[in-house]
Structure formats: C-alpha cells, structure tokens
Design goal:
heterotrimer; A alpha/beta (845); B alpha+beta (253); C mainly alpha (407); B: 253 residues; alpha+beta; three-stranded mixed sheet; globular; C: 407 residues; mainly alpha; Formate dehydrogenase/DMSO reductase fold; two-stranded antiparallel sheet
Chain lengths: 845, 253, 407
C-alpha cells in the first residue's frame, strides 16, 4: 500500500504497479462498464463531505462528467434523522455546542456525547456549571450520564412513548405555548375525518374561489390549508408567512385548537373536521397516559410507579425551564421507527415554544455531512459545459440510495411497487461497479454480508468492479480490484467544516505525501482525462452521445477542464511530453489546482438562498488567504452568526423550511406544504401505517417479524453497535495506540444478571448471531447495560474478529415512508443499524 | 520560586483519555506505556474507558480514576535513589536524570502511587510488539520516492536538560534499563507553558499553576473547593490535588 | 597447579565441575539478559523487584556465620568453636561479596554501577548498605587473614614457639576485631532490612519488625552455612562433635526465634484484616508452597532434627532444611508487598475500595493496566540466580579447601 497503486492480479493477491498502469487499467474498466451498462451503473459515495469539500467534491466532479450514481453518505451511514424532512422540511439542524451555555435544560435522548462528541462535551460540562440541568434518557447508563443531573433508563426504542407521555401532561395541564403552536406549527390545521387528509382550502365551498386566487401567488410546492377561528369562521392559512394574519382580509385571527366542526365542501358534501391539536390530544389521552407509558418504558415492572412520577416531573421541567435543548442521538433514530421518535421528541420543543431561540431546539449530531452551501461550481460540470455550448447547461451526477442498492429482496416486494415514488432511482442495468473512497464498507456497511456476496459474485446482482482509494490497508482494500494510494489529511489542501461548529477551515500540506501517494484531485483528474481519451478513441460518436449525452469533442474538452485552471492541465501535459514530468511536479500542480478549487468553492457561498425570500452571503469576506491563518466563522444569517436552528423562521417569520444544501428550496419545501412545522402527515403511506401523528410502535413488528414471522420470540437481545471512544468508526482500526487502548480485543458488553442467566462470564469468548450473520468477541459483563441489550463496540476490521463481522447481523430495512419522495440526503431510506435482534453463545477460542 | 501544583477535578472529567494519548504522543511513549492513566471505575483486567461501571442496573455511577506522578514535596523516590538520579527541583518538579539512573528500581518500590515505569526493553521494541499486534498483513513498504523519513518515530524530537541533566527525551529514543515517569512537561514549564495533559483536557478537568500566586486559578480553586490528595497520611505531601466526584446523576428518584 | 588439583578427590571434582557448569549457564543467561533487557525477567512496573533481590537479602543473611562464631569465641568465650572460626569468617567474606554481586543482574544499567561511588545519595539506605557490606567484607577478610596465619605457619612446619606466638597474636587480634565486627555484622542485616522497612507505602515491609526478623533469619542461615561448610571441609570428626553440637543448638534456637517472630507478626496482621489480611491471604493462598511448606514445615523440621538428631546426617539435614526454609521465607518478602496496593479509591456505588491500577510496562500481554501481578521467576531469573549461587559455592569451596582443608 502507498507504494503506488496495487492491482488485484489473481485471487492470491495484489500486483504492485505504477500510477500509469493502474490509472489506465481503472479507466479502461470504467469505460467498459459505462459502455455496457451505462454510466449510472457505476456507484460511489463521498463520505462525510464536510471533512473535505474539495477532494470529495473532486469525485463528484468526475461523476458529474460521466453521470455516475452518487450514494448519499448521510442515509447510507444511518446518520439521516428521517423525522426532520416530514416535520421541519429540512435535512437536519443543530445548535452549535456553544449555545448550550444559554440552555437551562438539556435533554439527551440516546447520545453518548462524551464518547461521540468528545471535544464538545466540554460545553455540556460548562453548561451544567452555569446551572443548566442535564437529563440523559437512554437504555444504558452511558458514560455521558456521569456528567448529567439525572439518568432515566428506558426500554430500547421506547423514546416516542416517553415523549408522548410528556405531551399528555403538557396538554392536560395546559403547559404548552399556545401562541407559538398557533403561529408556527400545523396544530390549528383542520383534518378531514372521512379521509384523514388535511382539509385543503380549494376543497371548501366558501374558500375555494379565494384559494384559487391565492394559489397563483404561492410556489407550486405549497398548499393552502384551513383553520377555524373562535367565531367559527374558516380561514386560509397563508404559507408565505408565519403569523396569524388572514391572507384574504389581512386581519389578525385567532384559530381554535380543539373541537370538532362541520365543513361544507365544494360538491356540497358536509364533512366533519378536527384541528390537528384535537387529534393529538385525543391520541395522547387515549394511548399515552402516564400509566400506560410507564409500563412501556420501564425496564422492570416494579419501577412503573416511579416512572409515572418522572413523566410528570419531566413535563414540568420542560414547560418551565427555558430554553430547552434536546439532543437526539443517532443510535436512537437508527431504528425502523426512528422517524416516529424524532417526530414525538420534536413535539416537546414545539409545544413549549423552544425553537429558534438561543440555546433551544432539537438537534441531531451525526456525521460531518453538512454541505454548507450549494457547491456545484466545483462539484458539477455546469460551468465548463455552459462555456463550451454557449447555452446554460447543467451536468451533475445521478443519485442512488444505499439500502435500495443492498436490499434486492425488498425491490421484489409488493410494498416496494405500491409505495415507491418514481423519484426513487434505480439504474436500468443495476449497479455493476463500486468506487470506494474515504470509507470501509466491507467492515462498516456490510449488512447481512450482502456486499461480500456481491463482491464474490454470489448474489443476483453481483459487482464486476471495485476500486478503492485509501490511505491504509482496510478490509475493503482486500476486496478491491484496484487500489490507489491517496495522500492523507496534512499532505494536501482541503476545505473543511462541521455541522456542530459553524466554521470554515482548511488543511494545508505540512508534509509531502508519503511514498507514491497522491491527492485525490489529481487521481480523479487523471481518471477523467484517461477515461475520456479511451472513450473518444474506442466508442462511436453515437455511442458517446447516447450513453453520455455529450459529443466526443465536448467530452475531451471537459476532461481537460477538470482542473479549475485549465492552464495547470496544460502545464502537466507539456511536462509529460517533454519528459520533465515527475510526481513532485504533479503534486505541485495538484496543490495549485486545489487552492483554486477552494477559491471557487468559497465563491459559491457568496449568494445563497437560505429560505424563501432570504438570500445571504455565507462566505462574506472569507478568503483562502485568511483561512490559511485561522478558521473563520461562517456568516450565518443570525445575530453574531450564531448557529440557532430556525432563527429566521421564528424571528423573521419566513416560512419553513430553510434550504438543505445543495438542494433548492423547491426540493424540500414540498415536505412541509403549509410552510409550518408539521406534525400531521397525510400522505397515503402515513395513513396506511397509522402514523399520521407521531406514535410509539414496536420496531420489530413491521420489520423483522413481518418479513420473518418465525423469528418472533427467537432472538432475545437488542444488538447495539456502539461507537468506540478510540477511533472514528473503523478508521484507525489498525492503529497500535488505538488498539492498545482497547486491549487489542473486540469486546461484547452485557448485563451481568443476563449473563448469569445464560451461564456466561467476563472474558468468555462469545459469538453474537442471528439469521443474517454473526460476530465474535470477548464478553464483559457490565451492569450499566440494559438487561435486554448486547453491545459490540464497533470499528474492528474483520482480521480482529476471526473473520466474523459486526455489521453482518444487521439488515438494510426499508420503511415505506422513506420511498414516497427522493431528495438525496434529505428524504431517503436511512440505514437502521440498531433494528437488530440477536442471540449470544459461548464458543471455545 | 513558583510552587507548582496540579488539580484534577473529577467532576469535570469525561473519561476521554485525551490526556493519556497526548502525553504518550508528546513524550514518545510506546503504545501501552503511559505516564498518566485514566479509566472509569476499574474492574479487574478490563481497561476500556468508555464503558465500565459497578453496581446494579440502572444504579451504576462511574468514577474516573486518574493516576499521574504526584511530584511529592517529600518524595520517597528521591530519598531512596542511591545515585541521586531522581531529584526535586525548587519549583516542585520531581525529575529523573536519564543519564545517571542505574536502573535499580528502588524508587519504584518506594513510590506508593505506582507512577514510575521502567524500560524493561528498548522502547522501540515495545512499539514493535504493539505494531505486530495490529496483525497487518500488508505493512507499509517504502517506495523509491525518498520523501518518507525512514527513522521517524513520534514524540518530541528535542531533548531537554535541566542544569546539564538530561530530564526530557522522547522515550522511544531512550534505551532500556532506566526508570522514567511524568515530568510535568518540564521543558514546557520552563518556557512558561503548561503540561500537555492540562493543555488538551477536554473537560478542563486538569488545572495547573502556581500555588504561591494567590490569583492563580489553582489558588482560587483550592481556596474554594474541597480537594484531597492521595495517601496524605503517608506524609509524602503530594502536589496533585483531586476534587472528588460528587455530581453523579439521580437515577429513578 | 597439579598440587592444587591433587587436593580434590574425584567426587569433589564432579561436584565442583557441576557448580562450574551451572555458574557458566548463569553467566550466559546474564549475557542474554544484558542483550535483551530485563524484559526477560517476570518483573514488571507493578512488581519491580523479584528473585534477584530476594536472593540478595538471603545471601546477606548467610554471611552472618562469621559473626556468630567469632563473637561466640571472643565475646562469649565459647572456645569450642575456635577450630571453625577461620572457615566461618571465610563464609562470611564470600557470602557478603556474593550478596553484593547478586545485585548486579538486577540493575538495568550495570555499567553505571560506579555512580554509587561518584554520586552517592546518603539518604538512600542502598548506599549505606553498600557501605556496611563493604566494611563487613573487609572485616571478614581480616578475620580470615588472622585466622589463616597460624594455620599457614603450621602447614609450613614452623617451630611450635613461632606457631604459639602467632596463635596468641591471632587471638589477640581476634579479640580486638570482634567488638568492631559485631556492630557491622548486626548492621548488614539491619540496614538491608531497612532498605525495605523504610517504605511507608508497603505495609508488608514498613516498620520496625523487619530488622529483628532479618537478624533472626541471618542467624539461622549463617549458622547453617557454617555447619555445612565445616562438614564439607573437615568432615563430622569426633573432635569436632562438640563444636557441631553447639552450632546445631544455636541453629535450633535461632530457627525457633525466627518462627516465633514470623508467626507473631502473622497473628497481628490476621487479627486486623484489611490490607494486612490481604497480605496473609497472599501468603497462605498464592504462596502456600513457600509459606506452609518452605517457611513453616522446613523450619519446624529443622528445629526437631537439630535437637534430636545429633549426627552427621542430622547436622547436614537440619542445615539444608534451614537454608531452604529461610530462602522460602526470603522469597515471601516480595509478593505481599507489591500485590497489596494501598493507593485506593472508593467505589461510587458501594463502600468498597479498589486500588488505582498500575501500567504493566510491556506490550506482550493483552492487558497493560493492572492491580495484581502473579509473579513467578522467569527461567532466565532462575538460571542467573542458580548460576550466582553455584559460583558462590564454588568459590567458597575452593578457597576453603585451599586455605583451611589440611589440619
């Protein structure tokens, strides 16, 4: 590795070779696959783009050129909290951790902050010192509990029940913020009791004509909904602004939240309607009384009465201690019903008006996923194509969802055919090639060993070609056909930001790349140039046009324009011709190209549509020169550029959502058609599943037990693949220091009482298994673990677990609500790591 | 002359072990040898710090357990060293002259805190052991390109002498047979910096400063908070103060 | 040279040859240890001293023979011991040097050993031990010399007058030296014990008990060594029967004292429990072989045999058992000290405390932070120790044979 490239010569091993050979081989293979199966059959992902807008964008640029399929890493990693889009219409939002200092109550639902946000846990400690109350709700006593004021243990995947129990008290005791929910949420919206759909203004006899007028003035992705005021007057809810002004009369109105009403429709039919709030109230009064909730969430029956008190007290805390910040952890939403939990938890902050204010709101922190502004000038090929053609043109990659890619069986199912929107992509010829960069899917994403089977061609949809660009010899490298050595972080330029801190920073080369490794921008540039050359030489004009939608001439020109400054490409070509070319020269040119690319990226941030009618300059005054000196705060449209989710909605009254980049508002505005925070979803699938309002459901009923009824009662333990403190997932799994910190032993944690019952003890070598796969490790009994939970500390490459594999017991479940839209990284099928049941047995080592 | 002390506030410690690793990286300690250690409530033989507790579910509070050289005012190690290799500076640092130590390990028998670590073999061999355990089937191979530094090892490349005595040198560059321990980053202190473990502490749980300065953070904290020292009854007069953990969460109350 | 060789019978030659082979193996093992580092021992950070230092303490004790005999003769007027006085001093000399040599393989940097002379730290009892051991070695050598002069004169068949005069002078010098040597003889055990006893952090060692027990152990092993050396050089002759009887009586008495001291200490610790109880638990569980068999059974048998069986067999047997018993007792010096850590923290969820763990110091195991290290000497440690002991016996035997064999 890192000697230059490696080619898998035979099943026995790899052949070490030079860059020219490796890149030519790769280009030939890619051209062949495109010609035979079409460009969209080449799939790739750019992992955690925030850690490298430039080099990760470099692969997007290459994919844009040829039209490959990008698998958005956010849902792939299970990091996409699927409640955001239906509720707030956004991808994700989060308080920057500095804002915790303004919070008075911080509720942490299933997030081991001290381990997974190590550095930011300082802010929790400071917040607590300044008087904030920190409450951890988790199935296990995670280490974050040690810096909390209270730890509330609950059963796995019962957070929605707890939240709805609290909502019960908030509504029963009128502890909600009435003004807030009338203004910013869908609580006053009327719902038809006959269809369970929300009442549209154009359906209502007395509103239909005005609705038609208004419809012309609002964006196509909006809808006009209806509320009713104290006098029984029906009012159209204006999706253009967040206030209580009737768009027809321009007068202030006061909508009712409760009661049942009758409305006459255009066709004269009279139907019964209720406000969303009334439906919510009925729901929580019926199903989520503190008694019922306590029975669901309590790990032991004898504690039920304690939980009744806790629910009452939590409700009072949430209603009285302001601001309230909720941290909703990834391990918590990576379940089949993770969306329901998020929607239920959002209710807590929405009902109490804890949104859009300093130190308040619900936040999810998973992955460095955030694309801070649309970056198509570098990521796409729009500008070169426009320049060549002289007409405005767009050239961007196609998209694909990872779970859809893996779950062949689901794609054969009735459910898929019934609910799949035509938006949800699947290449005509399937996926034939996988490009792996910046990730290790063969350890980290190999659910039910599907990827291994695909690589070994033991699957109905095999992979013909796997290419990896890596800095270390991972498991995925071992399954690859071509391995290209990449430069590591401080051997190249990179533009970086994180979702949790609104700063931009760059990495700069502190050292030349070791051995023959090269910055990715150069690698992908070479593939662009070489592949386009092969295509132009070997394909007919028609083929190029048909498959790539470009003329040969356009293709070759565009490949030459891969570097943002084509002059750099000319210099490299010139050097090659004259024999002056060397790795150092290529690196020097790549570094110059990188700097230029970063400048282009910064340029893209100068004029951005943040929300409807709100344009901002996010990179105002930020230059490469300045970034070379220090990280710089992004110019967010808030006082002090503070990162407070939905500040502009609550304070500037612009409608929900704000843009989820790189998508335009239209792509996500349709998720909250009212322009408000929506808790009532009336798409057919929600009605079919009984999830119009957030509810609590057993996560296995509609997943495992539905597809494999015989597994009911067969597997006893929830399988949690906990993040390790000592590495980022499987990165650095082979680092000696990191391994030393974990005794070189993969560990499986279990409650000692449960272990006793099974006759297991600490240091037993055990295997955790289910129908999909198995993993081995050393058992540690630990009383902090919920009695029905087994924890495997993830990240171990297969070589450390006897060839078994910690993600093999997982399965790529698809929930039908996730396939009714497709907006990459926003509304997609999310990976559900924790929706897994297993058993455990001792093995002789 | 300053009177340096360290305070470890266990209420602020998140158990992340950043101090341990930063210390090892700066001082060139091979993996598995640490001059300071942190772990949650230890259970025999299980050292992973991110999950470990005692008690019964769900009442399982954990305590972070730190260990670091106390730089005692009455240091038994200094008293017993037959050759005066271990000595105490006026500002309180207990240091080891790596060039004088004969490796008799009397100091290790004398130290009640177990903070001293002897180089039982050449540290680079310990590193080799650790790397072997990574079970790497394809170790990095150096190519023709000479940009890689073949003899590179991590750790501070510069050694430091205190009045001519070698008291700081990356351990991976030392040879076997001598005793080493935490120096409180003497070379940083002499430049007016703080020890590296203090600098990197996520929860700012480790605080370092001059107790003779009434305005220093350490003086302020010690005047306000109840701090304890380990094994005070022995009269070793340790200079590391611990603020005991008291802020555990309520559970099902 | 042939003259020297002729002094040894073939059986002796085999015995000495064996010792030589063991000593060479020990030296080879030491060279290996020098090349690899002390990693080849089973000592680690948590357990920094092991078999080497235990053997050192044992050997200091075996050097007590000179004191016992010469003080008996010159201070307590037990003239019956006169015939073995010089040999006893020789054992003291050889064993005290042997003890000092035993420290060398324990050092991480033996090449720096002169630092003790160049930069002595006088608060360290190791330095004082070095001083008293050196002084004791010199005094023992002086005893050997003054004992040897009349002996050599007799061998050279000088006139009876001359011999008598030399004997008188020797006796006079002996009387002068004895009161000087006695304090040093007591001091070597005391200061050696103090090396351990001053460590306030080690409950097994700390306090005033260790020095008297070291002294008692020294009297046992010292007298056993003298008995064995005398039998080996002079045989169990009729004219020496009384001498041996006295020595065996002495052996029995000091063994009884040692056992008494040890067990009254155990009782106190057992009664209190806690850390002290943990010490006993280590002694009687993990170390049952050295505690119950080695220390108790062997020493108890020593007393019985030394009193009841006043034959050559009894003398040899009781002395060998005494030495083994004391060696076992010395081995017990280490583990209860290192594996009982007093640096503890209180567990949050209970009243119990647990020790703060210590970094092990290698990467050969899958754990590196621990509170208990089940120490057993490594093969290299055993080889080096046996080598050193063999070398000491070899040198002692050859010297004794050369200097004092013909009467």
């Amino acid at each position: 590795m890192r000697k230059a490239a490696e080619l898998r010569g035979s099943s026995e091993g790899f052949l070490e070779t030079d860059w020219d050979t490796a890149l030519d081989c790769a280009s030939k293979a890619l051209a062949y696959i495109m010609r035979r199966y079409g460009p969209s059959s080449i799939a790739f992902t750019i992992q955690v783009p925030g850690t490298g807008y430039m080099n990760k964008g470099a692969l997007m640029r290459l994919a844009s050129l040829f039209g490959w399929s990008s698998m958005h890493a956010y849902p792939l990693n299970g990091d996409l909290p699927t409640f955001w889009a239906p509720t707030f219409g956004v991808q994700s939002e989060e308080l920057e951790t500095l804002e915790y200092l303004n919070s008075r109550l911080i509720l942490i639902f299933g997030s081991n902050f001290t381990v997974t946000r190590t550095m930011s846990s300082r802010m929790l400690i400071l917040a607590r010192e300044r008087g904030a109350k920190i409450i951890v709700v988790d199935m296990n006593y995670a280490s974050v509990s040690n810096i909390a004021d209270e730890f509330i243990p609950i059963n796995p995947a019962t957070d929605a029940a707890l939240a709805l129990g609290i909502v019960h008290i908030l509504i029963r005791d009128k502890l909600y913020n009435e003004e807030f929910i009338k203004t910013f949420t869908d609580m006053p919206l009327l719902v038809r009791l006959d269809t369970m759909k929300r009442l549209r203004a154009e359906e209502v006899k007395e509103l239909s004509s005005k609705a038609k007028e208004l419809k012309a003035k609002i964006p196509a992705y909006r809808d006009l909904f209806v509320s009713i005021d104290k006098n029984g007057r029906l009012i159209i809810i204006d999706p253009r602004r967040l206030d209580l002004i009737d768009p027809v009369t321009n007068e202030r109105y006061d909508p009712v939240l409760e009661g049942e009403y009758e409305v006459e429709l255009v066709d004269g039919k009279r139907i019964k309607v209720k406000p969303v709030f009334q439906l919510l109230k009925e729901l929580v009064f019926r199903d989520y009384t503190p008694d019922k909730v306590a029975k669901i969430i309590s790990p032991k029956p004898e504690w039920v009465s304690k939980y009744v008190n806790i629910i009452e007290r939590l409700a009072r805390d949430i209603a009285t201690l302001k601001p309230v910040a909720i941290i909703y952890g990834a391990s918590n939403w990576q379940w089949y019903n993770g969306d329901l939990k998020g929607r239920a938890l959002s209710l807590l902050v929405a009902l109490t008006g804890n949104i859009g204010r300093p130190g308040s709101g619900i936040s999810t922190y998973a992955g460095v996923y955030k694309i801070r502004w649309p970056m198509w000038s570098w990521w796409g090929y729009d500008k070169p194509l426009t320049m060549i053609r002289g007409t405005p043109s767009m050239r961007r990659p196609k998209w694909l969802n990872w779970s859809v890619f893996l779950n062949y069986e689901y794609r054969q199912s009735e459910e898929w055919r019934k609910y799949r929107s035509t938006e949800v992509p699947w290449p005509d010829q399937g996926v034939r090639a996988l490009l792996i960069q910046w990730w290790n899917p063969f350890d980290q994403h190999n659910k039910a060993l599907i990827l291994t089977k695909k690589a070994k061609r033991d699957h109905p949809e095999p992979l013909d070609f796997i290419m990896t660009t890596e800095i270390q010899w991972t498991t995925s490298v071992e399954y690859s056909d071509i391995v290209l050595p990449a430069a590591a972080w401080f051997e190249k330029y990179e533009l970086v930001s994180t979702p949790i801190h609104p700063y931009l920073s760059i990495t700069q080369p502190a050292h030349d790349p070791l051995f023959d490794s090269m910055p990715e921008i150069w690698i992908f540039k070479e593939i662009a140039v070489r592949t386009s050359k092969i295509i132009s030489e070997e394909w007919s004009d028609d083929e190029v046009k048909r498959i790539l939608g470009l003329s040969k001439d356009e293709l070759v020109k565009m490949a030459q324009m891969y570097y943002p400054d084509p002059d750099l490409q000319r210099q490299e070509d010139e050097a090659r011709r004259s024999g002056r070319w060397s790795l150092s020269l290529a690196r020097e040119l790549a570094n110059k190209a990188s700097e230029k690319a970063i400048e282009i990226l910064l340029e893209d941030g100068r004029n951005v549509t943040w929300a409807e009618g709100l344009n901002v300059n996010l990179t105002e005054g930020i230059t490469l020169e300045e970034l070379k000196k220090r990280p710089v705060r992004i110019k967010l449209p808030t006082p002090g550029n503070r990162q407070i989710p939905f500040w502009s909605q609550i304070n500037l009254r612009v409608p929900f959502p704000n843009a989820s980049f790189p998508h335009p508002i239209s792509a996500t505005g349709r998720f909250v058609k009212s322009g408000r925070i929506e808790f009532y979803k009336d798409e057919d699938v929600f009605i079919d599943l009984g999830e119009t309002l957030p509810v609590h459901k057993d996560p296995f009923e509609e997943s495992l037990y539905k597809w494999f009824p015989e597994d009911k009662g067969r597997y006893m333990f929830v399988y949690l693949t906990e993040n390790s403190l000592y590495r980022v997932h499987s990165t650095h799994s082979n680092n000696a220091m990191m391994l030393a910190l974990q005794d070189y032993q993969p560990k499986i944690y279990m409650n000692p009482e449960t272990a006793d019952r099974l006759g297991l003890k600490t240091w037993d070598y055990v295997e955790v298994y289910n129908r999909f796969g198995r993993v081995r490790g050393y058992l540690i009994t630990d009383p902090s673990v919920h009695p029905n939970v087994i924890i495997f500390v993830q990240g171990w490459w297969r070589r450390y677990t006897d060839g078994t594999h910690y993600n093999s017991p997982n399965y790529p479940w698809i929930k039908p609500t996730e396939i009714i839209y497709f907006t990459p990284g926003v509304w997609e099928v999310n990976t559900k790591w924790n929706n897994t049941l297993v058993n455990i047995r001792k093995i002789e080592s | 002359m300053p009177r340096y002390v360290m305070i470890i506030d266990l209420n602020k410690c998140t158990g992340c072990r950043t101090c341990m690793v930063a210390c090892a990286m700066k001082n060139g300690l091979p993996p598995g040898i640490f001059w300071t250690t942190v772990e949650w409530t230890p259970i025999a033989g299980v050292i992973q710090a991110d999950r470990r507790s005692t008690g019964n579910y769900p009442y399982t509070p954990m305590t972070p357990v730190h260990n670091i050289c106390n730089h005692c005012d009455n240091p038994p190690c200094v008293k017993v060293c037959p050759v005066g290799a271990t000595y105490k500076r006026e500002d309180g640092l207990v240091l080891i002259d790596y060039e004088r130590c004969i490796g008799c390990r009397y100091c290790m028998s004398a130290c009640p805190y177990g903070v001293r670590t002897f180089l039982w073999e050449d540290p680079e061999k310990t590193l080799e052991d650790a790397i072997r355990r990574t079970r790497s089937s394809n170790p990095y191979k150096a190519g023709e390109n000479k940009m890689a530094e073949p003899d590179y090892v991590y750790g501070d490349p510069v050694e430091y002498r205190d009045k001519g005595r070698l008291v700081h040198k990356s351990v991976l560059r030392l040879k076997r047979g001598i005793v080493t321990k935490c120096t409180w980053c003497v070379e940083r202190i002499d430049k007016g910096l703080k020890p590296v473990c203090v600098e990197v502490c996520v929860g700012r749980a480790r605080i370092f400063g001059d107790l003779d300065d009434p305005n220093s953070e350490v003086s302020q904290i010690l005047s306000r908070k109840n701090a304890v020292r380990r094994l005070e009854h022995l009269g070793t007069e340790p200079r590391v103060y611990y603020i005991p953990k008291t802020n555990w969460p309520k559970v099902l109350e | 040279m042939s003259h020297v060789v002729k002094m040894f019978r073939p059986k002796e030659m085999i015995f000495l040859g064996l010792l030589l082979i063991l000593a060479v193996i020990g030296i080879v093992a030491w060279i290996y240890q020098l090349m690899q580092g002390l990693i080849v021992t089973n000592m680690r950070n948590i357990f920094p001293w092991g078999l080497y230092i235990a053997t050192f303490a044992f050997l200091v004790g075996t050097a007590a023979g000179g004191l016992i005999v010469s003080s008996s003769i010159y201070l307590f007027n037990v003239r019956e011991l006169k015939p073995i006085a010089s040999l006893a001093s020789l054992t003291a000399f050889v064993f005290v040097l042997g003890a000092m040599a035993m420290v060398i393989p324990d050092l991480g940097r033996p090449e720096r050993i002169l630092n003790i002379l160049l930069y002595p730290n006088f608060s360290s009892l190791l330095v004082w031990d070095f001083i008293v051991l050196t002084a004791y070695a010199i005094l023992s050598l002086a005893h050997v010399y003054i004992g040897w002069r009349p002996y050599a004169a007799r061998l050279r068949q000088l006139s009876e007058d001359k011999i008598a005069e030399l004997e008188t002078r020797s006796f006079r010098w002996g009387r002068i030296l004895a009161p000087i040597s006695l304090p040093f003889a007591v001091l070597i055990h005391t200061v050696t014990a103090w090396i351990f006893a001053v460590n306030a952090g080690r409950p097994w060692w700390f306090g005033g008990f260790l020095a008297p027990s070291f002294l008692a152990a020294a009297l046992v092993s010292g007298s056993a060594v003298v008995i064995l050396a005398s039998i080996a050089i002079y045989g169990f002759k009729e004219d020496l029967r009384h001498t041996y009887n006295i020595m065996m009586k002495f052996l029995a008495t000091s063994t009884a004292v040692l056992l008494f001291l040890v067990y009254q200490d155990y009782f106190v610790r057992w009664w209190w429990g806690g850390d002290e109880g943990q010490i006993l638990s280590i002694l009687f569980n993990r170390l049952w072989l050295t505690t119950l068999i080695g220390e108790f059974a062997l020493l108890f048998t020593t007393i019985i045999i030394a009193i009841k069986l006043k034959t050559s067999l009894g003398a040899v047997l009781s002395s060998v058992l005494a030495l083994l018993g004391v060696y076992a007792h010395r081995f017990n010096l280490m583990e209860p000290s290192y594996n009982v850590l007093i640096n503890k923290i209180l567990l949050p969820s209970s009243e119990s405390t647990i020790p703060v763990p210590i970094v092990l110091g290698d990467m050969k195991h899958s754990y590196w932070l621990l509170t208990f290290w089940p120490y057993t000497p490594s093969p290299i440690e055993i080889m080096i120790t046996i080598g050193w002991l063999s070398g000491i016996m070899l040198i002692l035997y050859v010297l004794a044979k050369l200097l004092f064999s013909r009467r």
